[in-house]
Request: fold
Amino acid sequence: MAERVNATGHEPDGRPPIDSDSGGASAGPQPLLVARGLVRHFPLPGGLFRKSERSVKAVDGVDLMIGAGETLGLVGESGCGKSTLGRMLVRLDEPSAGEILFDGHNISTLREGELKEVRRRIQMVFQNPFSSLNPRKSIGDTISEPLIIHGIGDADSRHRRVLELLDIVGLRREHYQRYPHQFSGGQRQRIGIARAFALKPKLIVCDEPVSALDVSIQSQILNLIEDLQQAFGVSYLFISHDLRVVEHVSDRVAVMYLGRVVEEGSTADLYRSPRHPYTQALLAAVPIPDPAVAQPDSVLEGGVPNPIDPPRGCHFHPRCPLAVNRCRAEMPPLMAEGSHKVRCWVNAPAAYRSGIAPG
Amino acid sequence: MIIGGTKALDRLDEPATAQDDPVLQVEDLKAHLHFGAGVVRAVDGISFTIRKGETLCIVGESGCGKSMTALAIMGLLPKPAGRIVGGRAVLQGVGDLARLTTKRMREIRGRAVSMVFQEPMTSLNPVFRVGWQIEEAIRVHEKLSRAEARKRAIAMLDLVGIPSPEERYKAYPHQLSGGMRQRVMIAIALACRPKLMLADEPTTALDVTIQAQILRLLNRLKSETGASLLLITHDLGVVARMATRVCVMYAGVIVEHGDVGDIFATPLHPYTQGLLASIPASRGGGERRRLNTIPGIVPSLANLPTGCRFADRCPHAYERCRKEEPPLAEPRDSSNGNEAQKVRCWLYLDPQRAGEGTLWRNA
Reply:
């Protein structure tokens, strides 16, 4: 089994001290999951007899902490690495480097056979409720499958547990024998949530759980996700491209750009006073559902650069209205002021600008 | 911006029309899908007009008939199931689109009215260069030499904000990003300077910063070309940003219709109110609140209830709502002066109940 490590006091070699303060441990909740220096590179196919030197740097050095009972929102545009990061935390994808501590255990080095216990504690809810359910399995079988795999209870108690889960997620007991095609998108997402909760996990990674749903159904599912957190104290990593939804559900938010976290902070800090020019642009781009409010006209030009060959220095500098010479030469670290962290030379916290901190 | 060769458009035989004639007038349009014994009443009697330079947004959830409305106007209903079974869609200078022959419709499509779809990757042909695809759209309608068409295609790429258009002219669709592909689609749609452009969820597949670019582009092109825009979306943020007027669709019919300011400031229909309240509001760091929800799901279009289609999900439904379908009409008590705002709800139309809608709205 995994080696027990002190999650808060651990400091890997060679990392600047600014990165070791993984998320306001002073006032915040107990850390449930801590990820350090997570990297996932997908090598590109090479020549006939050569291994390729090039790779897609999907996740390129991410540190994050998820506290017990809290929701960490993870936002970013397509290709920023947010889904890959989520899949690594559930160990559906292998990190190329870095470590994941869950409840104090290092789970990043576990082999497939040892992962069962982890999978029981960390579950996932997927985006597409149409492709994430087996069309040939009844709803009862789908929800009880994790219980069978983990050898929990006998047939009777499993049946009772599934009925209880159907109640919890707002489905009817007679749905037990029905099949996925008989359900609407919102109901299917409820089934996916029931399956994720079957093993009473501590952490659920939700990857765009409401993106495929209509707005009136989306709000039903978001309320359900929040109700379940209140009832069972589960933690969420909530991955979404929708900034409004993330603001609604999250206690803290991390913004990713090209494989790295560029800003992280409490939801209030990040939405009220975004520091990173990318976060500012993202927030300004969200259409405001009120024609009486003037939409900010600061439109970000260009698109996300190629993650195979990201720009030198700060990855955002080619699109950044504030970029200075240092941004083109040197990648800024994630610099913290309290629990608000930003990866930007120009809008760095005061302490870093005066040259006290390492640069 | 001047595009080479636009004179060609003047050849479109156009009877003299009054300035404020609507560009498109849709009256009681019905488009149904026939499957064996069943009929899906996808568009079930809708009416609206689009005036010159205006953006009309049709907003609604999946399956409400908003995309089918656009396909019916374009003569692109899925064959053989889809058919226009009633009503008219009169395009200025052309006539009733619902009654055109396939051949005549082909001449109109892309020239007087054009359409941009949601997914630019599947709407572009992957084996032809994008420049060639724009040229094709032009040469179908206008007798231009290759060189002239090429010049116009490059001008169009420039117009839609594609950097180094001479280079990108030679690119294949897969070499462009999603936002760039959507710009190419818009270039194709506008290449013959249509009076009306239909756009079905044009930014739904795009990231939010790219969406902002495309919306800004559409607004700029609209003012530069004078085209009208029929924009179909599920995103009320996009509606607020783009629309002059709004139609809210539910289960194949328009349930509310009005100026964008009125729809957002004083939504009348319980469905519109529910939609607006379901959007997660910015809470500026305040306490987290439960979201408003609309209970239940949309009724099946193959098996619609009698009476109001929203009654099963409506918190205010009463007897009459379940028996009799309300018409789309101005509220009896339109004391707020929003004459143009129409609603399909008995709470505003039933003499026994008149004013009640206003009462609970203000409560």
